[in-house]
Amino acid sequence: MLQYIIQQTQLSSRSIENTLSLLNEDATIPFISRYRKERTGNLDEVQIGEIVKFKEVFETLEKRKKTILKALEAQQVLTDELTQKVNLSRDLISLEDLYLPFKKKRKTKAETARLQGLEPLAKLIMSQRVNDLEYTTSKYTSKEVETTDNALEGARFIIAEWINERTDIRNNIRHQIERFASISSKVIKSKVAEEKAQKFKDYFDWQESLKRIPSHRFLAILRAEKEGFIRVKIEIDTESALQKMEARIIRSQNACATQIQLAIGDAYKRLLFPSLSNEALSIAKEKADEAAIIVFTKNLKQLLLGAPLGEKRMLAIDPGFKSGCKIVCLNKQGDLIHNETIFPHAPQNQTIAAIKKISALAEVHKIEAIAIGNGTASRETERLIKKIQFKNSLDVFVVSEAGASIYSASKIARDEFPDYDVTVRGAISIGRRLQDPLAELVKIDAKSIGVGQYQHDVDQIKLKTSLDTVVASCVNTIGVNINTASESLLSYVSGIGPKIAENIVNYRNENGSFTSRVAIKKVPRLGGKAFEQAAGFLRIKNGKNPLDNSAVHPESYGLVDKMAKDLKKSISEFIGNKEILQKIPLDKHTTETIGLPTLQDILRELEKPGVDPRAKAKVFSFDAGIKTISDIRIGQMLPGIVNNITNFGCFVDIGTKESGLIHVSNLSDTFVKDVSAIVRLQQQIMVKVLEVDVVRKRIQLALVK
Fold first, then answer.
1. Has residue 373 got a pLDDT over 90?
2. For 357, how many CA atoms within 13 A lie in the half-sphere containing its CB?
3. Distance, CA of 517 to CA of 535 (rounded, Å)
4. pLDDT at 594
5. Does the pLDDT value for residue 543 go beyond 90?
6. Are 498 and 328 a contacting pair, CB within 8 Å?
7. pLDDT at 450 over 90
8. 183 with 210: CB under 8 angstroms?
9. C-alpha closest to that of 474 among 448, 437, 499
10. How far is CA 174 from the centre of its chain?
11. pLDDT band at residue 590 using 50, 70 and 90 as cut-offs
């Protein structure tokens, strides 16, 4: 395993070996990355994730090898040479090729021919030394094989199967598909006029290199095929492929050569190309899935680490027309203190009453900020709020509603607010998202947040694994206040999980707030290993020990005490005092297990203990003159917020129902390899309108530098 992972990652053997050892001890990626830098050689979470990935790939491969060796042994065909070949296989494709000739098959044409006694004839033909093939073949006719033509056909079926099972032939065709295959799509004529088909219009007659097709286009084509609008085909130069096969197999110019040539054509058309083109499609799909998942995880990370407004008293509005605007007031901790519905818009148009109500609530509850969902009636509600003369200045924020409806109908929401309906829960979620995006968004299935491309088309198991990894990384990067965190948030803390998270909340409800990290050990089922993995990521504000509100792990408290005593200072004097901290001679505190990387991390944390590394939320305003797509004109400069990033560009909310697209070619004057290197999710930018298609509801934009 070690050599395999070294080959795949190019990381040092010591780093990999120690990381594998930690993983086998049930250490998590965030814990290893943050608190075991000396053992790993300072590997980051991405590098550790690669080790985990290839560890799993290797284990899957080894498991398959054992299964195949057992099957071969049961068939009594296992030789020392075959055992060696199986054990030396470095990927599943070559392994399955080795096993192919021995795999139990359903009833095939070749198997039928064998039962008819035609395998000896097939061997004679393949020897290419038969001078009178007609006479030789006549010996193999029977009641079941009435003519020589029937016998030759049966023999060709057997030969075709042999050719299909040849590793060199398969690899040669694989190589040709990999280098030269094209993917093409044609519309199904009966579907061409269907409205739902129009979004795939670009692929009604499309062709390009399979090797070069971008992942988003490949996934779009597959979706169009899945929905029944197009047919997809993989093609290579058939004549060239057949000639290469013939050159490898045919060594004579007699009648045997003619039969082998026919068998080659049959093997290629019926067995090889269908199988290997599907394999190529599967590999292309895996690569496209990986690219799409990477985009999704990058977006999700940016969204989760989005700027929080912090602990502010909040009035949140889930806007609507006929059903009204649901209003909630939240305290600094995000607890619900009031809710009701107002009807300022059509058809009720109770604008004055709504203004009076919002103004009164803002004063009574000492509201510090207002959050408005960005769905239906958002712009109208924003304009209404900005007309109100509040006694104190209030910042107004428009907040993404993506996934709020999923949360409001979820078990998590029902458990949190059993006495309120989905509209109230949705408004609460909008307000809490502004207070702390991470704490609220972890409650929602990441796929429902809407910041990816083709997330429902990719491998769902791989997607969930990747998204869970990102969520855990973000949660542990920021740290969690154990006395206020929800069960959902706690479940992502290193070493915790859903059951212990539930136990923490129950213990907190029964016994009150935790006053120290040591007290966390009293939680049922939170043993020594879980405490080791979790403690550094759990924060206790205003606790007995100031270090409990930092990322300094309890295992290093003794070291910090020694540092303070050496400088004749208390821990309280020590923390946050940059001048004193800079005087610490780090080399005097290094040990076999604690080196400079850990010591430098401790000092950075002591300088700013418990400080949230995220930026603060900024107020943003759309262009007041833009309400619908019909208001947009080519050449306009508009403010916008990036609300999705893909491989082909980014989508920008400019205040209309439809988001505009900045194609990758319009992001910069130079080539853009990675869109997220130019823009980030929720970034406030200026754009220029390039094109408006009102009928298709498409807006093309360019980034203004």
1. yes
2. 20
3. 7
4. 86
5. no
6. no
7. no
8. yes
9. 437
10. 29
11. confident
Rounded to two decimals, the pTM is 0.86
What span, in angstroms and rounded, lies between the C-alpha atoms of 160 and 662?
A: 52
Tokens linked to 150: 């029937």
pLDDT of residue 272: 96
Q: What is the mean pLDDT of the chain?
A: 92
Q: What does the alpha-carbon distance between residue 634 and residue 701 come to, in Å, rounded to a whole number?
A: 9
Q: Is the pLDDT of residue 573 over 90?
A: no
Mean pLDDT of 397-417: 89
The answer to whether residues 599 and 589 touch, using CB atoms and an 8 Å cutoff, is yes
* Nearest one of 247, 258, 203, 433 to 334, comparing CA atoms: 433
Output phi, psi for 642, to 5 deg: -65, 120
Residue 568 CA to residue 81 CA, distance in Å, equals 72
**Residue 653 near residue 640 (C-beta atoms within 8 A):** yes
Q: Angle at the Cα of 335 (from 329 to 338), degrees rounded to 5?
A: 30
Residues 6+ apart with CB under 8 A from 509: none
Q: Do the Cβ atoms of 328 and 428 come closer than 8 Å?
A: yes
Residue 405 has pLDDT above 90, yes or no: no
Q: CA 374, 376, 381 angle in degrees (round to 5)?
A: 70
- Contact (CB, 8 A) for 476 and 494: yes
463: tokens are 């997607």
pLDDT tops 80 at residue 106: no
Alpha carbon distance 30, 475 (integer Å): 10
What letter does residue 317 receive in the DSSP assignment?
Answer: E
| pLDDT for the residue 580 | 85
Say how many Å lie between the first and final Cα of the chain, rounded.
49
Give the confidence band of 103 by pLDDT, cuts at 50, 70, 90.
Answer: confident
CA atoms of 438 and 613, how far apart (whole Å): 13
The position carrying tokens 């006495």 is 419
pLDDT at 162 (0 to 100): 96
Determine the longest span between alpha carbons in the chain, in angstroms: 108
| Percent with pLDDT over 90 in the chain | 74
- Residue 403: predicted pLDDT: 82
Question: Which pLDDT belongs to residue 638?
Answer: 96
d(CA 345, CA 317): 13
Residue 649 CB neighbours (<10 A): 24
- pLDDT on residue 449: 81
CB-based contact 453:292 (threshold 8 Å): yes
User: With the CA atoms of 531, 532, 536 and 540 taken in that order, what torsion angle do they form, in degrees rounded to the nearest 10?
Assistant: 20
Arithmetic mean of pLDDT, 395-415 = 89
Residues 6+ apart with CB under 8 A from 553: 35, 535, 536
- Contact, 89 vs 61, CB < 8 A? yes
**By 3-state DSSP, what share of the chain in percent is helix, strand and coil, each rounded to 5?**
55, 10, 35
Q: How many CB atoms lie within 10 A of CB 425?
A: 26
Structure-token match 């209030």, residue found: 394
Q: State the Cα–Cα distance between residues 394 and 358, nearest whole angstrom.
A: 12
Strands (DSSP E) contained in 449-606 are 480-481, 538-539
610: pLDDT strictly greater than 80? no
Q: Are 29 and 45 in contact (CB under 8 A)?
A: yes
Residue with tokens 């040849």: 166
Cα-to-chain-centroid distance, residue 676: 15
Quick one: tokens of 103? 């795999």
Which is higher by pLDDT, 122 or 705? Answer: 122
Structure tokens at 199: 């979004």
Which segments of 29-165 does DSSP mark as H helices, in order? Answer: 29-35, 37-40, 45-74, 80-88, 92-99, 109-115, 119-127, 133-138, 148-164
Q: What is the DSSP code string of 617-681?
A: P------TT--SGGG--TT-EEEEEEEEEETTEEEEE-SSSSPEEEEGGGS-SS--S-GGGT--T
